[in-house]
């Protein structure tokens, strides 16, 4: 299928061929029309067209994060990760309409006509995958062209709701672009008297035609407003887009005593305190298109709010379409341009150059007759010199392309003695972009295509945590060797099934415990190889807080930091000691505020050679301080690794030290080379590590030490 993409490095618009997306918790829709949001999308394009310095000035928070990474990971690693993010094209669009072709929701059937919403979902593409709460059925009397406006209509609807308007009230709308003109019509449908305000005479004339009782530019505005309402506007809704604070200043003068000002557009917010203080006026910044926005449970997982949360995103979308059906919203007057999908760059050129007046710009899609079956796209060989791969090299297929995969794993693949077969991700854009960048033969949104490919004999799984176990089991049963990122499993039953599948298949399974493959770790292990005593180990992780709404905290997808991250450090202790953990006792800080229950803990492990290891994991520290420090004490000697850039070894008063200045040596390249060369991994250690994380969780919950018994999973 074709999709409109923004190159974040150059700012250019491209129409690329990518696989049809996979259905998840909603539907796959064949688009008929999608609406370009000139304000939102052009601001992103303008940012992309700036130099690196310009991008940095516009995103100071991102620069701060990069500088922190320089301190912990080294300048080379930080640079690679930052450029990797910029190299990924950005999908554009968030409002579309079309026909359901695949459904995973009881609320929709194949053939339903639907309007779709959401950045990253209702994009400018021939097919889109949309969660069920961001998708509504189109009334019979409404066409696809009109329905493509549903998302921006819901934004206008939510702004009016935030103003708490009632029949007969006087409302001012500042800014008569697309959302402003929709707001005027919604307010008229609600029985309000409306004054429309803009500096463009053509927009003022159009607003009057669409029902505004009074229209005005800023000259003589307050006299005209007093003619509409001598005591001031009951509410002012700002839908303008400008860095200037003139709209909020005008709103303060227009609104009545204890009236309401709602900010919908992206405007300057230098609020004149004296004006608002004297009127005790209320200011509300309207958040997109209703309750549910930015709530992962609502938008991604499809968990609806009770009806007493009356106007959610979806209900606002439905209400807007009903107004369109009743002919209370006139969209024909707002559609100024319609471009075929292939001419999308021309549409954005019109917006950027301003060579023609525009309001509503639609992209139109022609039915391609392929249905939703085109989930594989074969890619041409890179124009650069073909990679030299040994004749007997195996062929690798990869599943998943998140931040970790793209920053730590996939950049290493072109340098490995392996053929790159297929890459599978849930979204077509991600699959196509990453596959093309690293030289895969094809990309797909159906991971079973990788497993069914007879040429692929090894599979790498780098998805979200909850998919590791089921995909690894499928790959083993398909006769593939498996490299799976940590954690190996998120619950004991899944781990048991993995052990069973691995034993039955006879295939190799390696877990991405990369730290044991670090050259610094190898030197530390060799240093303690002939120790005469058990070891005492302390692994301290100054992780920094991860936002509470991040998927890693989701019980279903991530299972928290103890399961997701602590496994790394337990495995490292196994590697250094050469011993298995047999017992764990753990304690955690109780959750408070944004702190999660299993994010700040200490776990002390006993190993079968008598060694003791403690993991201290905290999100409470300063990010400028080193993230990972591991210390080992044994046989009158000490070893320390800091952030896998600094190794110090001491014995009998003599010290040696190694320092990596440009980047960390976390062992990613070494572990991948070991996998593609067919080296036998320590599968039993990986299973023991995974059980140890489950046991630590149980210890926190019960307050008692827990045994670590691989027999629980049949090992």
Automatic annotation (TrEMBL):
GO terms for molecular function: adenyl nucleotide binding; anion binding; metal ion binding; oxidoreductase activity, acting on the CH-OH group of donors, NAD or NADP as acceptor. One of its GO terms (biological process) is small molecule metabolic process. The keyword Acetylation does not apply. It comes from the Archaea. The keyword Transcription does not apply. SUPFAM superfamilies: Glyceraldehyde-3-phosphate dehydrogenase-like, C-terminal domain (SSF55347), GroES-like (SSF50129), NAD(P)-binding Rossmann-fold domains (SSF51735). Residues 11-363 form the Enoyl reductase (ER) domain. InterPro entries: ADH-like_C, ADH-like_N, ER, Gfo/Idh/MocA-like_OxRdtase_N, GFO_IDH_MocA-like_dom, GroES-like_sf, NAD(P)-bd_dom_sf. Keywords: Metal-binding, Oxidoreductase, Zinc. Its cofactor is Zn(2+). It holds the Pfam family GFO_IDH_MocA_C3. Belongs to the zinc-containing alcohol dehydrogenase family. This is Oxidoreductase. It comes from Methanoculleus sediminis.
